[in-house]
Amino acid sequence: MTPPDPTAEDAPGPGDAPDPGNAPGPGAGVAFGVQVALDALAEARIVPTVRAGDAEAADVVARVLYDAGVTTFEFTATTPGWRELVARWTAEVPGAAVGLGTVTSPEIAEAALDAGARFLVSPFQVPEVRPVADAAGRLFVEGAHSPTEVRAAAERGVAKLFPAHVGGLTYLRTLRSVLPGARIMATGGVTLANAGDWLAAGAFAVSVGSDLTAGGDVPAAVERLKTARLRAVPAP
Q1: By C-alpha distance, which of 131, 135, 133, 207 is closest to 164?
Q2: What percent of the chain shows pLDDT beyond 90?
Q3: Counting beta carbons within 10 angstroms of the beta carbon of residue 170, is it exposed (0 to 12), middle (13 to 18) or buried (19 or more)?
Q4: Reported pTM
């Protein structure tokens, strides 16, 4: 998938937050850049988190993923040199929907958006980042765990259920029963072996981290995840 350019001149400004009980389709009061990211996540459903000791190492992993057909993934703000890395991918690989994870402050959010990040991800609630994302018309996948937190984050687009392994699949199903339209990205404890189970349990998307590269054969791991995606139920 080649995401539309969210900086296009005719892109509308930030729109109303989606209702988690009735997730809207394209154009239903959602900012263009937000919808672009939502579409990319909905198509990918499995979103790798590329975390490494430095930017060059992260770049190597990301290029292997991209060559294997993964076009939506996130770098993290814990990787030294991440700003230049995001900017490089934005400029050189426009077909990739690259986000930044571990966004924990407005300063990090602003730097990520300036570098071209298509979406932002936090491990927990960061209310002060919300206006930054809104002003830029970008998706903020905000960390959450309690039902109240998940509902609030999902109203803004996507809630990141973290750490997902605390509560597990049963907890996700319970959340989905009371928030049937909520977009929830499960992160933490999601592996090659159980990614399909999380999708089948109702996750809008899942994030896979170190398990994707632990075996040393990233293309094979990607193929395994593609199979898990195909066998799961459609995105809610």
Answers
A1: 207
A2: 75
A3: exposed
A4: 0.86
